[in-house]
Amino acid sequence: MSRIAQTFAALKAEGRGALMPFLMGYDPDLATSAEILRGMPAAGADLIEIGCPFSDPMADGPTVQLAGQRALKAGATLGGILAMVRDFRQGNDHTPIILMGYLNPILSYGAERFCADAKAAGADGLIVVDMPPEESQDLAPFATAQGLDLIRLIAPTTGDERLPGVLRSCSGFIYYVAITGITGTRSATSADLAVNIPRLRQHTSLPIAIGFGVRTPAQAAEAAKVADGAVVASALIERMAASLDAQGRATPATVATVLGDVRALAAAIHAG
Q1: Which H helix or E strand runs over 22?
Q2: What distance in Å separates the CA atoms of residue 139 and residue 245, rounded to the nearest whole number?
Q3: Strand order in the sheet with 48-51
Q4: How far apart are the first and last CA of the chain?
Q5: Are 215 and 234 a contacting pair, CB within 8 Å?
Q6: What confidence tens digit (pLDDT) does each residue in 12-26 have?
């Protein structure tokens, strides 16, 4: 079993959902993001998403876009993100790492080389936001060959007739995009989740993680209860950004602020 499958199975046995916080690699700089990454498991993260910044992030709202801009300014590259994962693995061999980004940088890096390097670094899964199943032939075979889970995004607008085709090419877990639109612009509603998560379960036995509209500890607890996990991104980035100085540099409060928020999210999910 992959680390992702093992983690979801263990949490199911415990009777609780997963917390999956997001951080943008190199935001606001390499050292700070690496320290946050190292601290997330102890703060309660069950799986971790690392954003790979891109200059044209079509699915990202303003908060994540600004995080990507700070990361690129700090020198982020795909190779640098993989080095972050490799360093993280020196002290942690159990927390799944999912790389989330866009297809163009992967193709520029070389899809086969990227998948081999990602696996060697210790990554477990890939979320490629702008790669529909019908256009995944340039990446999917290499990810499969390396044992990397290729995680698909399912939106509220994904119809029943399309679901089986999308899910056939998915592994690891399903990332349910709980809102229509870009990240960080509004929150998911309990009514929508109550309708759409059972609909998804009719088509797949994979775990379902809810993202794109989960901001508060209460919402994270609700998402982890309705589905199998909650992804929190924009809210963590906003709090991190608020801790930076006037020049956008990390302060002594930056790491503690983010990890404190992760602890609050984890406590809510555990209580739920």
Answers
A1: strand 18-24
A2: 39
A3: 149-150, 125-128, 97-101, 48-51, 18-24, 229-232, 208-211, 174-177, 152-154
A4: 27
A5: yes
A6: 999 999 999 999 999
Asked if residue 18 lies in contact with residue 229, where contact means CB atoms within 8 angstroms, the answer is yes
Q: Are 40 and 259 in contact (CB under 8 A)?
A: yes
142: nearest Cα among 129, 163, 128, 130: 128
Domain made up of 3-271: CATH architecture: Alpha-Beta Barrel (3.20)
Confidence (pLDDT) at 56: 85
Check if 161 is active-site: no
Which of 27, 29, 46, 60 is an active site residue? 60
Residue 117 structure tokens: 């390097």
Separation CA 30–CA 32 (nearest Å): 6
Q: Tokens 């020049």 correspond to what residue?
A: 247
Is this prediction's pTM over 0.90? yes
> How far apart are the C-alpha atoms of 168 and 204, rounded to whole Å?
9
**112 in active site:** no
For the chain, how long is the longest CA-to-CA vector?
A: 51
CA-closest candidate to residue 8, choices 218, 168, 172, 193: 172
Listed by start position, the domains of the chain span 3-271
Give the per-residue pLDDT at 267: 98
Confidence check: pLDDT of 188 > 60: no
Q: Which of 28, 68, 17, 44 is nearest to 183 (CA)?
A: 68
pLDDT digits (tens, 9 = 90+) for 257-267: 999 999 999 99
Among the options 27, 49, 149, 261, which is catalytic?
49
